[in-house]
Amino acid sequence: MLVVDDDTTVRDVVRRYLEHAGYEVELAGDGETALRLMAAREPDIVVLDLMLPGIDGLEVCRRVRERGSTPVVMLTALGEEEDRIAGLQIGADDYVTKPFSPRELALRVSSVLRRANKTYEPRVVRDGDLVLDVAAHTATLDGTPLQLTTREFDLLAFFIANAGRAFGRAELLERVWGWQFGDQSTVTVHVRRLREKIEKDPAKPMRLSTVWGVGYRYDRCSID
């Protein structure tokens, strides 16, 4: 995995905790170095500080997402809510706020990796022109591949598997993210991103509906 932070103390502490957890860790102190390392060797996950010299963390995250579905865990300062939301909109899978517990970070990384490597039952789920191959971890809409992050795919797969039932944001955080607490705006951002990718008109969603006072519900367009 690749840890990107311009603070040498943070890098060293994070490296020691992650190596103790059994991970191989590479370090970068700026965005340019991080991108160069990723070009040479694709990491399984990126732990990424947003406040970096030169190419900032948001731009690094954007380029990671353009390259594929490598999971990204962001490190943000406690007051950087707008940057945190921006990172989630770009496609980050999780975030940890500074100051943070290195042990919590290691657990978050492990959780994201488990989801990224999750073994699904070999089957294909179809809803009209939307097709999820849960074994291959791919999705298409009207034959066109959808570029979904690991978390977006998990959320969509969960919604389709539980079509017709409304879920609150707190319940989605627990059942999809594995969090018993956390910023519920994370769910809002991911639902918005899914709508942009699966709805013909995201402003008038036909599949992923808002249930006022409750949360969200997935409605199938067709019956398998």
Automatic annotation (TrEMBL):
Top-rank lineage group of the source organism: Bacteria
GO function terms (MF aspect): DNA binding
Name of a matching Pfam family: Response_reg
SUPFAM superfamilies linked: CheY-like
Domain OmpR/PhoB-type residue range list: 122-220
Keywords: DNA-binding, Phosphoprotein, Transcription, Transcription regulation
Protein name: DNA-binding response OmpR family regulator
DNA-binding positions: 122-220
Species name: Lentzea atacamensis
Keyword field contains Nuclease: no
Domain Response regulatory: 1-113
Modified residue annotations for 4-aspartylphosphate: D49
